[in-house]
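Kindly draft a polypeptide, keeping tokens residue-aligned:

***
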Amino acid sequence: MSCIENINRFIIPNDVIALLTQIYKYIGKNDIYKKISMPDMNRIIEQTIEKDSFYLGKIIKLDITDPRLHLLITKNAVAKNREENILLNIKEMISDIQLKGDNYLIQSNNQLNLINYIYQNQYIKFDDEKKLGIGKVSKRNELDKYNKIMEEQKNQVEPIFVALNYFIDFYNLQPFTNNNKIISYLMLYLLLLRSEVHCFKYISFFEVIYNDLETMEEGILDASFNWNEGIPQIFTFVRYMLNMILQCYKNTDKIVKEYEIDSNINKSDNIENTINSFQGNIFTKDDIRIVHPYVSESTINRALKRLRDEKVIKPLGKGRSAKWMKISSI
């Protein structure tokens, strides 16, 4: 039996319940976060979509250089080859999940359409599996079963726990003839957002995964142990994911609080204070963006120009990656 079929048989350990309790304290703040960040919510989500697209492209190892990835994602450059088309299709799918994910019907035909939209002209189909005494049958039947059980468990089992169990099933079933990994990750992304894990509107889900990909994949392997025998070991993976979600919510809480402070004072002055707080004399725009992720490029540029004109900083180069140096006390 699969994880999703076993879900009512699991006895959830106390430490897992404790993690979920902490997460739900933050989920209860979703509306507060949204209200505070509402003036720039569209830009916040746009930046998250861009980061998610960039890092999912790296997770599936698209053959595109990092500068070209950035150009395609942030500047809407025209794709020049198949790999670049895949990336732009990924960005479109991530955008749909972020903005319209609640309307997505989790059905096998929609999942097949999704993978064929991303990998156009590859004509991906449902794969077959051998069944004792029956011969080959389409894996679509198993996927339909998982999707039906998940729908039946709605409002019956904690949704984050359902999402994680479904992900392990999808990952191990590999229902399509190829490129299953990306769809399993997109399904997890969709299900977590639909479970109101809205920290991933502010923080890139796939950036977090990419930066700890080895641990993530080890957790998946642990959860998949004995999956084919119907006795998966899910809780190591569940603990890893819940700790990751909790940390992302803590980071979201910090980001939104800093955004609220930025909104209540002159943004240019706040950037000036940030530059003054840097330990060394050399800094970049990226250093400023780490502290003020939702301040616009034009606001940062205006602050830097003013400080340059006041002869308290000077540029050490040109372009997006140029460095700046403090030349007097601000």
The chain is about 65% helix and 5% strand. The longest strand covers residues 128-131. The longest helix spans residues 235-264.
